[in-house]
Amino acid sequence: MSTEFITFLAPPGESITGYDRTAPSTSQASPVPETFKEAMSIREEVFVHEQHVPLENEFDADDSRSFHWIVYASVSNAQGGSPNSGAEDRKNSATNRMPVGTIRLVPPPHPPHPKPGTTHAIDNAEAEGPDADETMSKTSFHDGKEPYIKLGRLATLPAYRGLGLGRLLVNGALDWASKNPQAILPLRSPTSREAARVESGSSEAQEQWHGLVLLHAQKSVQGMWGKYGFDTDGSMGVWDEEGIDHVGMWKRIQVKEV
Q1: 203 phi and psi, to 5 degrees?
Q2: Are the C-beta atoms of residues 212 and 147 closer than 8 Å to each other?
Q3: What is the rounded average pLDDT of the residues 108-123?
Q4: 111 vs 127: CA distance, rounded Å
Q5: If you average pLDDT over every residue of the chain, what do you get?
């Protein structure tokens, strides 16, 4: 789903293996995709510079396997020209696309949900490792087994807020997801399905994504997410990510049959 003003980036995978998390996006070397660097430039402006998240924590392990969207604004190169500029100047002026907003979609699997009252440096590493508490996978909205996608890193540059770009990004990502469930959770071979059943100890393995969406919302903007159709999961409580209170919110969307 790419247009003149929105670009879609499939999971960049190994192309960002060499991404230097201690350096800004403008300093990243090839083969990091330009589109990914644009997304990171927005995230750095909003989360690092505005909200004081450490730069080294903004890029994380989920970026390589996530789907990313970037929205652009048209910016004229003629800005700052003379008010008496004539038709010739206008003819020679050019318009560039400027990245101004981004969002990402993280497919399954995910670590267990964070415990209320805990503190985390990176939102995709809440409970990794052998000591993870399995009860953290269950909530009032989630049975602990059903596959879900996770929206996050929604960011818009300050000068472009209030224009509906956040809603455009959210709707665009969810619309794409509803039409591409197999891209989110590819069908596995019979051997892989059997291995999953044995590992889970269940007679049935969760094979498909049925439209369940999670986000870790900053508590201060959960009202905005509510307008997008997300409901707060009170059983998840409140936890700290990078010094900012977060809550869990869920939504279920209609998925195209495959």
Answers
A1: -75, -15
A2: yes
A3: 87
A4: 6
A5: 86
Which DSSP string corresponds to 172-215?
HHHHHHHH-HHHHSPPPPHHHHHHHHHHHT-SS---S--SEEEE
Instruction: Quote the CA–CA distance of 94 and 75 in Å, as a whole number.
Output: 9
pLDDT for 187 beyond 70:
no
- Residue 15 corresponds to which tokens in the numbers above? 């192309």
Contact 70, 38 (CB under 8 A): yes
pLDDT for residue 141 is more than 60:
yes
Distance CA 151, CA 174 (A): 9
Whether the pLDDT of residue 196 is over 80: the answer is no
The structure tokens listed for 23 are 């350096």
Region 202-211 average pLDDT: 70
Element (H, E) at 169: helix 165-179
As a whole number of Å, the CA-based R_g of the chain is 20
Residue type (1 letter), 48: V
